[in-house]
Amino acid sequence: MEQRTESDVSPYRVFSRAEWASLRQDTPMTLEPAEIVRLRSLHDRLDISEVEEIYLPLSRLLSLYVAATQRLFRAQQGFLGTEDAKMPYIIGVGGSVAAGKSTTARVLNALLTRWPNVPKVDLITTDGFLYPNAVLEREGLMEKKGFPESYDLPALLRFLSDIKAGRRPVRAPVYSHLVYDVIPNQWIEIDRPDILIVEGLNVLQAGRLPKDGKAVPFVSDFFDFSVYLDADEGVLLSWYVNRFLALRGTAFADPKSYFHRYARLSDADAIATATSIWNRINLVNLRENILPTRPRADLILKKGESHEVEEVALRRL
Description:
By secondary structure, the protein is of the alpha/beta class.
């Protein structure tokens, strides 16, 4: 019998960095060096080579996927004889705390906005759909903040459903990382974008399937494409600790910061505190809720210790 390898039956095609970079072809660089610096999150790595070799090929792929989806949408309109409003293309960006989701989402936003047809691109994070701290405290969920049960899932699903239906405008709540809470009565208005990027920890979460066969919507049901930022556990821990150390002199130093009590910690105490938070909360969330969603992504960006993407896995069609 013919011997089949694991790669033969994998739903993904895996590319080395060099192989993926070659797929850029003639996609132009549209970002200036100063813009790249502004798009980079604290202690994340982003330079021109990362944009050229990883994100420009991805931008090219997405341009092909968006065009194909638009053709399919028009074909369905023709079949149904309807004239529905345009349907936004939604891209999900998921992965662990400290994996670089925010940087990836912002880079994609900047690149897609600069496509020749100048699409309207919006970006939201699911942080705004966390329950307020008062609710989490009442329900005993503050130690589970970022876990699936800490989100107002019905509100997030309504938001995505309205976006897909072309309703305008649609409002998303605003979250402040400074005060570590949802800001009451503040909203971001999303007004019929061509493309919407949704970034968050658990965006690919499926949850339990019903036994009666009834339709249960998941956040990822509304995605046309999804990206998962991947790195080994030990690497993620080192990034998280380094970011925590740096925040002592930046965000934590603000008296209004929820984490202001950590601003004066010594290096040793800060490392111990960050490691404890990671092991008690973020690592548990990663293992129980986030990592199991990795196989549901359309694209997996595997990062090494330097923050550079070393390998790309693209789901086969």
